[in-house]
Specification:
The protein has 400 residues and is of the alpha/beta class. The chain has two domains: 204 residues, FAD/NAD(P)-binding domain (3-Layer(bba) Sandwich), CATH 3.50.50.60; 90 residues, no CATH class. The protein has 13 helices and 19 strands. It is globular.
Length: 400
């Protein structure tokens, strides 16, 4: 039996950041378990058709968190990243308009602008109607029935592939907020108005794809990173993995159903884990270049299986082609290179907050710190996942 202070489960951005934060805190007694043969989790990259492709879909480094940026360039120097002004578009009415939709109605013909503006004027948030608790109803309440019908509802039905009324509204701070006044102003002035989305600027490695920085972080851990080692068993009473490693505390970034598969958990906790839902996504490569300057394109059309296009030729130097993201329930028949991420998106169901609170509180009482996209069951961009890793390391050390 090898005794260590900390065991970290998972070497994605959160797990890697937790490991390196432990080092910064003077901690050297830890190991990181990773079932794959390389570090990076959903942010891993593959060489496909001569250029890197990100197997988890579209991942980019947001520049809004200077502390995260400063920290990551210690591993991959700033000169190894290229900065881009985000160009993302929505494919609708046979054309493309810039994202977010409601801030760029001015790019559509006048008659369509008027239709959308009239719809927004009747929206519940404008008329003073009470805010609904379900996501489907919230979309119409917030944006009006036309934007809901033409874009937001079909797009979200595609990406989540579930009854949208089962999603809550507690996560909607992630969506850009544009009021009717700002929307009207954008149409009159013919330019975007209101709060713009995340990734207005982003960084992407010059070489190696987005997985490059996480690969370097993994190598820097040396023998403390156990690649190709999926834990087979976890004793939650003694914090022992596979009967080989015993820890004083565990940081888990694993999806809770995977942890439940290897550990004997109380029935009440298993019941709560059973309420946590997720979406699987297929990433598929296409060789052709698309006639667009966008970095990615949202596709709400329900007749098209994929919900997003990533135009690699516009952000990977010297690359050709693009890749699609499709909910695995809608995928099928794709030829060529493809990869399915079983755990791609946590679903923000009405039942989720209560379930996550119950599971993570129970885990904390056992000396298990839950962190990251899957530990916290929260859709996090990679920069947020880095901060989650820092917090998890600090909590683990503070717990003694």
């Amino acid at each position: 039996m090898q005794a260590v202070d900390t065991i970290i489960l998972g070497a994605g951005p959160t797990g890697l950041s937790a490991a390196h934060r432990l080092i910064e805190l003077g901690q050297s007694s830890f190991v990181v378990f990773e079932r794959e043969s390389e570090a990076g989790g959903l942010c891993r990259s593959r060489l496909v058709d001569g250029s890197p492709l990100d197997i988890g879909g579209g991942h980019f480094l947001d520049v809004r968190r200077p502390a995260v940026l400063e920290w990551l360039v210690r591993f991959l120097p700033r000169a190894s990243w290229r900065e881009y002004d985000r160009i993302s578009t929505i494919q609708v009415h046979g054309t493309q308009i810039d994202y977010p939709f409601e801030a760029n109605l001015w790019q559509l013909p006048i008659e369509r602008q008027l239709d959308y503006l009239e719809s927004i004027a009747r929206a519940g948030c404008v008329t003073g109607a009470a805010m609904p608790s379900g996501f489907r109803e919230w979309i119409t309440w917030k944006l009006g029935d036309r934007i809901a019908a033409d874009y937001m509802l079909p797009y979200n039905e595609k990406i989540w592939s579930m009854d949208l009324s089962r999603l809550g509204t507690y996560w909607l701070h992630k969506l850009p907020s544009v009021s009717f006044r700002e929307t009207l102003r954008s149409c009159l002035e013919r330019k975007p108005s209101g709060t713009m989305p995340a990734h207005a600027k982003f960084l992407y490695p010059v070489e190696g794809g987005y997985g490059r920085v996480w690969e370097i972080m993994g190598r820097a851990l040396g023998e403390r990173l156990l690649l190709g080692r999926a834990p087979r068993s976890l004793d939650v009473e003694t914090l022992t993995i596979d009967g080989e490693y015993r820890a004083r505390r565990i940081v888990t970034t694993l999806p809770w159903p995977e942890l439940a598969r290897i550990a004997a958990l109380p029935s009440a906790i298993r019941e709560q884990i059973g309420r946590l839902e997720h979406a699987a996504v297929e990433v598929a490569y296409r060789r052709e270049n698309l006639d667009s300057t966008a970095h990615w394109i949202y596709v709400p059309d329900p007749a098209v299986p994929h919900h997003r296009l990533l135009l690699r030729h516009n952000f990977v130097p010297g690359a050709r082609g693009h890749w699609t993201e499709t909910n695995a329930r809608r995928a099928g028949g794709a030829s060529g290179w493809r990869h399915v991420n079983e755990y791609a998106y946590p679903l923000n169901t009405l039942a989720k907050p209560t379930a996550v609170q119950a599971v993570t509180s129970w885990a904390a009482g056992k000396g298990i710190v839950a962190a990251g996209r899957w530990g916290e069951w929260e859709h996090m961009n990679s920069d947020v996942a880095v901060e989650a890793g820092w917090r998890a390391a600090e909590r683990a050390v503070a717990a003694g």
